[in-house]
Amino acid sequence: MKFLVTSDFHGNHEHINELQQIVTIHKPDAFFYVGDLSPGRWVFETPESASEYLETKFFPVIRALPVKHKYVMPGNTDFITISKAFQEKYQDPAECKFMMDSSLQLEQFNLAFLSTVDYSKHCLKDTEAINKYETNIIRLEKSYEGTHIFSRDSPIDSSEVYTGHNSQNYDLKYFEVFPNYHAITEPYKSRLNYSIYDHLKNLIDGKPNTIVFSHSPPFNTCADMVSRKNSLHCGSMDVRKAVEDFQPLAVFSGHIHQSVFCSGKFRDKINETDIFTTGNTGVDAKYMNKIAVLVYDTETKEAERFVYDLKGEFAYTLNRIFD
């Protein structure tokens, strides 16, 4: 089978619309989108507005792609409430199957989809979990101190707006706010404490021919390098430990937009497991005028990364420089 994999459009309609041409060129058997559908949270501050944008700009294009199997998963910029709604709505791979921390069988392969990412200093914790094998205790303790915000399962009557430590506004109609980790109540605390390792173990332990699609990359690979100058890595210790313990065939990840720019490569290994990163960004202004996709042959295990130029404009950007 031929897989086509990409990620991290962040709502960029130029990336979305280019997929039709890319699919026509490569003719994949299966298409995989590995997280971060939505524009930045500073663009659409409520789940409802983000959902409306994606239903207009993203899903019609995906559904129209001439690919037999199409799988889409959320990332850390996607509100969990709309991800749950998409999971209910989009269940047919022929049109689009929305996967979130779940797995399925495709021919001889167990395909595992992990949207959950590392616990961080960011306010919104919808798709974050604490690493069971975290070694940076100082970073962990600092993350405990910040505001913790979770999307409500359903809206409430409220006209209050909370401004997080990242200067983003959170309408309390849609979000519940806790001043620090220790103040979190259920069911949010259990969700945050269910480790990334345990998520992955549940999806891949004892299942042969597993291929993992994880928004968060494993630690200390080309896929998680965030600074070329400092050789800095920020991937998940739990994803790495799960790969070492359960040895899937391959892991495809996104999340770290600058991974290929900083490391100079898109493919790595952990023991016998192939590690791939899309290295794509639809939101970083200096780099978003190109789209990157991976094409993978499941028989030969060969992969190529293709980059295509884009000509249009996208308004919702970040002015970051990768070093």
UniProtKB/TrEMBL annotation:
<dbReference type="InterPro" id="IPR004843">
    <property type="entry name" value="Calcineurin-like_PHP"/>
</dbReference>
<feature type="domain" description="Calcineurin-like phosphoesterase">
    <location>
        <begin position="1"/>
        <end position="258"/>
    </location>
</feature>
<dbReference type="Pfam" id="PF00149">
    <property type="entry name" value="Metallophos"/>
</dbReference>
<protein>
    <submittedName>
        <fullName>Calcineurin-like phosphoesterase</fullName>
    </submittedName>
</protein>
<dbReference type="InterPro" id="IPR051158">
    <property type="entry name" value="Metallophosphoesterase_sf"/>
</dbReference>
<dbReference type="InterPro" id="IPR029052">
    <property type="entry name" value="Metallo-depent_PP-like"/>
</dbReference>
<dbReference type="GO" id="GO:0016787">
    <property type="term" value="F:hydrolase activity"/>
</dbReference>
